[in-house]
Amino acid sequence: MPVAVPAAVLAHARVTAAEVAARAGIDVDAEELICGRAALLGLTGHGRVSAGGATRLLAARDGWCALTLSRPDDVDAVPALVESDDVPPDPWAAVEHRVRETGVSAFAERARLLGLPVGVLGETAAAAPRVRRLGPRRDGGGAAGLLVADLSSMWAGPLCAMLLARAGAIVVKVETAARPDGTRAGPAAFFDWVNAGKLSYRADLGRPAALRRLLAAADVVIESSRPAALARRGLGPSDLPARNGRVWVRITGHGAVGDRADWVAFGDDAAVSGGLVAGTTDAPVFCADAIADPLTGLLAAHATLAALYRGGGELIDVAMSETAAGYARLSRGDERCCAARPSTPAPAAELGADNATVDALVARRDATTC
Question: Measuring CA to CA, which of 51, 86, 329, 359 is 20 to 30 A from 16?
Fold first, then answer.
């Protein structure tokens, strides 16, 4: 069956989408954003197996948790997670046994020490995006004509950048050859949907000077790495020369401070952490398809546009699990099948196809600033 979305969740997302549309001067279909990947890829709901297939809901005496094994490194970490070298090619039976044996709290603690994406059902409280001053403001306005450096990957951040591109921003998708956006290796239809129309820039983190110039010239920066990752390279929001009105959008799984800043998350396990599931707390099933991703991407675009209209100069922190927790507070008594299919996207640019164009754009901006 197609993925299903609680009616109240969809209704609230439509309100946010309408506000984004009004500020950006574009059409924004909340149902398409939430269910577009499932429709493009023919994904369906599978109860306690996520629509994408990489995440499972697991039960123990002390509750439920969700574990994602989507990356080769995640699967390779399973023997250490279950403390056994005798793990079959399909590791889920061993994982489920380990959860029942230890309980979800101890299991999640060990998984996080190993850098695995895990969420304990309902562990996260709702919170709005956190906003603080970053630098000087400028005259407020929309996104049209602004330069956006999109360092994010997967779904939430790229979706935010996609909406800004639709609003007329010049969006540069930044990747490295060593670690490109993981969705490049997946179905092209999804990658193209959220990244078509962006300029593609291949960065070299071993020689970060060019990337530093791009970030310094950007009006908006979107990133979804762990908070310390850019700071270690001198590329964090406080490391760059001030630019009037710059908005820095930081999307994380569980927040940007404390121990949670190091917790890895994907859309399905982040939704479980926030309590956004279907069914009951005693018998939960997954809600839609990695729903924390599109809800967070939409909220991040809303917060970014609001900041731009205030004149910018702000750092915005948006956490997927906290966003999901906000939606989890809504009534979820009835659901509706969701199959809104995006129009066939144009192909996204090949990695690094626009390096010369972007470098020239940054040089012109530098000259204008001087």
Answer: 51
Nearest to 7 by CA among 28, 26, 31: 31
Share the mean pLDDT of the chain. Answer: 94
Q: Report which residue type is found at 354.
A: D
What per-residue confidence (pLDDT) applies to 46?
Answer: 75
User: Side-chain half-sphere of 10: how many Cα atoms within 13 Å?
Assistant: 21
- Residue partners of 179: CB distance under 8 A and separation at least 6: none
pTM for this model (two decimals)? 0.96
DSSP string, 179-233: S--GGGGS-HHHHHHHHTTSEEEEE-TTSTHHHHHHHHH-SEEEE-S-HHHHHTT
Which residue is it, tokens 């889920």? Answer: 92
Per-residue pLDDT tens digits for 61-108: 999 999 999 999 999 999 999 999 999 999 999 999 999 999 999 999
H or E stretch including 132? strand 130-133
Cα 104 to chain centroid distance, Å, stands at: 24
Q: What is the DSSP letter of 335?
A: E
Distance between CA atoms of residues 339 and 4, nearest Å = 9
Q: What is the CA radius of gyration of the chain?
A: 20
- Placement of tokens 């960065």 in the chain: 203
Annotated catalytic residue: which of 289, 293, 317, 354?
Answer: 293
CB contact at 8 A, 69 and 75: yes
Q: Report which of 41, 48, 33, 29 is spatially closest to residue 2, judged by C-alpha positions.
A: 41
Q: Is 282 one of the catalytic residues? A: no
Mean pLDDT of 326-343: 82
Task: Show the tokens assigned to 360.
Answer: 């020239």
